[in-house]
Amino acid sequence: MRPPARADVRPETRSPMGGGGLRVAMLIQRYLPHVGGAELQLAALAPLLRDRGVEIAVFTRAMDEPGRYVERGTEIYRLSAPGPRAAASLAFTLNSARRLSGWRPTVVHAHELLSPATAALLAKRLLGVPVVAKVLSSGSHGDIAKLKRSAHGRRRLAALVRGVDAFAVISRDIDAELSREGVPEERRRLIPNGVDIARFARTDRHGVRERFRSRLGVADDTPVALFCGRLVPEKRIWDLASAWTSSPLAREAELWVAGAGPLEERFRDNLPGVRYLGLLEDVAPAVQAADLYVQPSAQEGLSNSMLEAMAAGMPVLATDVGGGSDLLSGTGAGVLVPADGVADLVRAASEMLRSPERLAEMGANAARHVAAQYSLDLTADRLTALYKELAASRGA
Description:
Elements: E1 22-28, H1 37-51, E2 54-61, E3 67-71, E4 74-79, H2 85-103, E5 107-111, H3 115-127, E6 131-134, H4 143-147, H5 151-163, E7 166-169, H6 172-180, E8 188-190, H7 197-200, H8 205-216, E9 224-228, H9 237-245, H10 249-252, E10 254-258, H11 264-267, E11 274-278, H12 284-289, E12 292-295, H13 304-311, E13 316-319, H14 324-328, E14 334-337, H15 342-353, H16 356-373, H17 376-394
Parallel strand pairs: 1-2, 1-5, 2-4, 5-6, 6-7, 7-8, 9-10, 9-12, 10-11, 12-13, 13-14
Antiparallel strand pairs: 3-4
């Protein structure tokens, strides 16, 4: 999915000093126009949090010109963080603390346990504000595993375990990892990602499906599996595409791949049975035109794309990593395969795509489950309640 166009962008140099209500500083490594699950989730939540009386500002690394901007109603501080990784991390931490001192938050919310969480702890020490930390992913490439690879990282992790007031937990895997590191249950808050139910619900499924497929020259009765996301090795979409092309599925079904990233050039070649859609301005029509969503990741937090597919009434086939288990186990909304099971994914996709009745039943279960537990409004409500609780504990 492309980020929103930057039509309302106003660079400024001053920092606002007013306010007095609930003010939450969002610290994140990168922000739009960089595309990733954490960035898109925060952008979607921003207006809903404002509707609930939460004033927010985003503090992130500058991709071009540092400064203060207002983009679609959200205040954004793009901070200078030059140099190699260690120097850039230190610069981001120090510049964040300086800017936060001027903005005067009542709560600081770090999106990731690396530089953003370190900067948030420094702000807590300097300003006395409570800190929320969102862990973005679990497993061998997750936030906690990255910190534990070095002595310095382990010290940072220990400081986070001691100093973070509440961890926003998006999956049971992440909750278990935090528990093993000694974070008590009362500081682990289940606040999964949310999805805009109304946007992805199939109010005109047949019409959208027909128009989208017609533009691609794909027949209405051709079975289609879809993947949307970053084209990076850990998503293993190239592994799945390679296995797909050498299987009978390549002759009877299509795998649509939407997204961008380091591996995208590989998908520009004509692969049998695989169609590269590029980076879509709006993923909803593609979601509504496909039959099955596939998520072959080796690691995952809680996939926004999976939530979007389920909201549209599409069943999901996924590896059993991260939040995939939370979404699919016992819900009848899809199928899980082992984390290293690319061949299992191809076999399961073949079985599922040959059974329209089974797909329809799973899709209906998926839509009900997501609407009840994973709406964007529910996520905004949960975050607002947490911010208010932390602010009250501080005496704000």
